[in-house]
Design a protein that fits this description.
7-stranded mixed β-sheet; 248 residues; 6 helices; alpha+beta; 6-stranded mixed β-sheet; Endo/exonu/phosph_ase_sf; globular; endonuclease activity; Endonuclease/exonuclease/phosphatase family protein; Endo/exonuclease/phosphatase
Length: 248
């Protein structure tokens, strides 16, 4: 497997960043293994799904951030699960937690969003976990695109657990408007579920036009990431992308 570019700042102020998407299953599994995987990926931004939502959820998420050498940007119970973590390289301009329309009988969903700066690059960020129900999921994909456009920035990324494969209507709605980072520059593994038997890609990272994808996939062979930790950490495999974001 080729090396994934490290984070860096270019002379023109543009930034190469690492973005990790990860469903952490409410930290119900091996949190030490989870932190080791995240640390080894050396992300600038982590788009979390299924962050802790109940008793002492803030403390649990804070412990994970500390163990992963990161800080909390936004999200958690306030978005019903999606959250954003970042390295200290990232400067946060603003955040907003968004609750989506609720369908009775289904789990309520939300978006964790932020506008951040890395070096001279300004970037919108959105973490999502779409519905298990097909029609609602498709509608939420449209709401995601609207929310991303509403951040008012030239460059933006979105990622999360889509609960759908690339040939599904919600996934295609997103990939029709945004760059599917894995499809643009395959790197590492493809399938994100399940860790014990990876057989489908239902987690993804997307980017707006102008962001160059340098590599994206499951970090199966990244130094410091072991199969044992990936299987112990949670019930999804993470998606790691290296992206070049132009200076604003």
């Amino acid at each position: 497997m080729s090396l994934l570019p490290n984070s860096r700042t270019e002379p023109d102020g543009s930034a190469v960043i690492r973005v990790l998407g990860y469903n952490i299953r409410s930290m119900r599994d091996d949190t030490a293994a989870l932190a080791r995987v995240i640390r080894a990926c050396e992300p600038d931004l982590v788009l979390v799904q299924e962050a802790p939502r109940f008793f002492r959820w803030r403390k649990k998420l804070a412990r994970l951030a500390l163990a992963s050498d990161l800080v909390i940007v936004t999200g958690g119970a306030t978005t019903t699960g999606p959250a954003i973590l970042s390295s200290l390289r990232v400067s946060v301009e603003r955040t907003e937690d968004v609750l989506l329309p609720h369908t009775p009988g289904l789990h309520r969903r939300g978006f964790a969003t932020a506008v951040v700066r890395v070096a001279g690059a300004r970037l919108g960020v959105l973490s999502c976990h779409l519905s298990l129900q097909k029609d609602e999921r498709h509608e939420q994909a449209g709401l995601l695109l609207d929310r991303l456009a509403g951040l008012g920035v030239e460059h933006a990324i979105a990622g999360g657990d889509l609960n759908e494969r690339p040939d599904g209507p919600a996934f295609r709605r997103l990939s029709g408007a945004l760059t599917d980072c894995r499809a643009a520059a395959p790197w590492g593994g493809e399938h994100t579920w399940t860790p014990a038997d990876p057989h489908q890609r239902i987690d993804a990272i997307f980017a707006t036009e102008g962001i160059r994808v340098l590599g994206c996939g499951v970090p199966t062979d990244l130094p410091g990431v072991t199969g044992t930790d990936l299987r112990a950490a949670t019930d999804h495999l993470p998606v790691l992308a290296a992206l070049h974001v132009p200076a604003s």
